[in-house]
Amino acid sequence: MAILLFEGLHSVYHSFCTVTTGEWLLFWAEIAVAAVIYFELEHSRRTAFLEKATGKSSDQERREIYASYFEVSDPAQSSDEHAKKFMDHLFANPTLKKKCDNEIALFNEIGFMISPWLTRKKPLVEIFPHAPVYVWMIVRPYVLQRRTDTGPYFACFYFNFTKRCLNYVIKHTDGLHLRRPDGSDGCRISKTELLKMREEIRGLL
């Protein structure tokens, strides 16, 4: 066994010794080219993410979803009851439903964009970690219904992205506050509720 190991190491050493300086330079040049290509792809990925995440149309759609959510709000209802009432409102309003579908598709695509392990996920999640949490709170029953109808693969990247956003928010805050369009008090999400959301999403992955 020791002889075989020695012969193997000797062969590797011999191979390295026979590589010329020119071949080494070519090898490192190819490594440099690969690194440049990777960083260009990473830059393109980040640029595409920013365009989608901060686009005016997407931001406006989210604002309109929030406004519609408060239109059907009832202080006596729990957040779960409120979300179910919003789902009924959503099915009665095709335009609103389309906006919700757009946001789900957007976050699903963003989740796909940052899924490769080489991508630096944290800086991307830091851009607006609260928005996916708000959207999940609002459309949760609708998303779960679509998942039941479609299959466990539905919006899996959306769930992953929302989970990462929840991890970030839970680490840095004691809760979130979604205000009404006029700036008045709206909906507060406690840390306990955030933790509950995260556990539910983990159970879906």
Q: Give the SSE string.
A: HHHHHHHHEEH
Helix content: over 70%
Strand order of the largest sheet: 1-2
Q: Please tally the β strands and state the result.
A: 2
Query: Terminal Cα separation, in Å?
Result: 46 Å
Number of helical runs?
9
Report the average pLDDT across residues: 80
Number of domains: 1
Low-confidence stretches: none
In terms of DSSP E residues, the strand content is under 5%
Radius of gyration: 24 Å
Tell me about the largest β-sheet: 2 strands, antiparallel
Shape: elongated
Brief overview:
This protein is mostly helical. Helix content is 76%, strand content 4%.
Report on this model:
The protein has 205 residues and is mainly alpha-helical. The chain has one domain. It is built from nine helices and two strands. The protein has helices at residues 2-18, 21-53, 56-71, 79-91, 94-113, 121-125, 130-150, 156-172, 191-204, and strands spanning 175-178, 187-190. A two-stranded antiparallel sheet has the order 1-2. Helix 3 (56-71) crosses helix 5 (94-113), helix 5 (94-113) crosses helix 8 (156-172) and helix 8 runs antiparallel to helix 9 (191-204).
